[in-house]
Amino acid sequence: MNNSVYILEDRAIIYINGDDATDFLQNLISNDINKVTDSSSIFASLLTPQGKFLFDFIIVKHKSGFFIDCEKTQSEEIFKQLNLYKIRSKVEILNLSNEFVVASFGYEKYLSIENSKDILGFTFKYREDPIILDPRNKNLGARLIINLEKLYLSLKKLDLKDDKIENYHIKSHQLGIVSKNLNKLQNKIFGIECNFEELNGIDFKKGCYVGQENTARIKLKNKLTKRLLPIKIIDGELSEDEKIYNNEVEIGKVLINEEYPFALIKFLDKNFDKEQIFKSENATFKILIPEWLKI
Known about the structure:
Helix content is about 20%, strand content about 30%. The protein is an alpha+beta fold. It has a 6-stranded mixed sheet, sandwiched between helices. Strands 13-14-15-12-17-16 form a 6-stranded antiparallel sheet, with helices on one face. A hairpin with a 2-residue loop joins strand 8 and strand 9 (about 130-135). About 40% of the residues are buried.
């Protein structure tokens, strides 16, 4: 069994509580906040009114409110956006990133811990702190959200050994799930094109939320023709916003060009061939389709 743990120092924790916290979040996020309980956490996103991607995060019940586990580079913006929507709602929004940390470890290790269950998003307390089986995909393992002061004692008790954060990002990229540079997707791609339905981040049965109308229309009218897919670089370097061609037909665009690259691809286009090696100005690469994405 792999006993590696990744201290995700590039994640931040925002805490939302108050009398209106549940309704406040329900009106904003793409998933159903009522699914969040002491034993269940969710993946969700905050979209523009047009349904374009802004932020994504994992929501975990904590005391009388909710932890928002998000990418640190997005945390200030999320904090501001939530406060913009707050208006007269009775909610308190706190950035607790200096106090809490997120640690991630493997699926098998998670299953070996007493009280764990093999259910996506399943959440239980370990010495008062939540452990969550990643609600997006079990191969991303589990997350522990914990006060920084208690972190190393809990990791020792769980027999977990600190590993490089890069290894977590490599694994996430291989799975086809964006864990870094989410800002590069903002306003450029619809939430549903980020595969949020397959990653359990959209609830089509819940009521209105920001961006719901376009998200539902794309789904119901079968207008989903593009998908966010990982790129495997064979050689060279990619540029952000670089167009991808085949047979002189544009079939996609690079959105994240750095260590763990992703592109928005017209996956239904007859000119897209997942077996092909593509060439751009300064790189050769393949476009991967994750196993969990049935397209």
